[in-house]
Amino acid sequence: MGSHVSPRSLKIGILFSTSGPYETVGRELRDGALLGLELANAQANDGLILEPEIVDPGGSLDRYREATDTLLRHGVRHIIGCYTSSSRKEIIPIVEKFGGLLWYPSHYEGFESCPNVIYTGASPNQHVVPLAQWALPRYGRSVYCIGSNYIWPWENTRIMRGLIQEAGGTVPRERYLPIGSTDMEAVIAEIAEIRPDFIFNTLIGESSYHFYRAYHRLGERDEAFLPDSRPILSCTLSEPELHAIGPEAAAGHIACSVYFQSVARAENTHFTEAFGTRFGAGRVTSADSEAAFITAQLLAASLRHAQTDDIQAVKHAAYACQVKAPQGAVWIDPDNNHAWLTPRIGRASTAGDFDIVWEADAPWRPDPYLTLPAQGAAAVVTAPAPKPRRPLRLVGKQGC
Question: Would you state the pLDDT for residue 382?
Answer without folding.
Answer: 39
